[in-house]
Amino acid sequence: xxxxxxxxxxxxxxxxxxxxxxxxxxxxxxxxxxxxxxxxxxxxxxxxxxxxxxxxxxxxxxxxxxxxxxxxxxxxxxxxxxxxxxxxxxxxxxxxxxxxxxxxxxxxxxxxxxxxxxxxxxxxxxxxxxxxxxxxxxxxxxxxxxxxxxxxxxxxxxxxxxxxxxxxxxxxxxxxxxxxxxxxxxxxxxxxxxxxxxxxxxxxxxxxxxxxxxxxxxxxxxxxxxxxxxxxxxxxxxxx
Length: 240
What we know:
By secondary structure, the chain is mostly helical. The protein is built from eleven helices and no strands. The chain has helices spanning 2-24, 36-39, 47-71, 74-78, 80-106, 113-138, 142-156, 158-171, 176-200, 211-219, 233-238. The longest helix has 27 residues, at 80-106.
């Protein structure tokens, strides 16, 4: 029960955060007036490239983050054709728009080289996990696919968590330069740690289930948030 509602709560909070970020980023598409966030970055060596990357990144995030959240739901996973095509669309946007544009923006990130390094690490995790996840899906390795996609979603959630942390750290009076570093690195590393911990937590031995049900539960990206049962003896002997 706790895992079920915890998962729903997490997905809902991330969706609301994504919508909020998208709405507050709409001024970036005003080609006549530069918003304060952009003005404080000036002068930029490659201003046109940076502005293009910013707009591409915002648009790609507005499309890919909600799509990832939808792909995590059981309703999506039960509709195999829909899940497959939405996944292909999302993977394309992430690999060819979100990650490249984010990499460009990282080199002028507020907070200095440590923040730049954090953004590049997050981009690397997203790109590598997406590639691994796509390859696993093509091989029908659903366990590896789900594990990789959790890492993608975890890094995407950094955008929401980081902004919330910046607000909180500012409220307690922490120096802005330090706050930006903390608010980026903590969620980036924590999301990796949480995904790995949830994926490797001990399996309950209460109620053995049949092989197909076991595989179905573990293949779901939400499975790590729900109670997991032990393999039946026959499955254990198969080494699955």
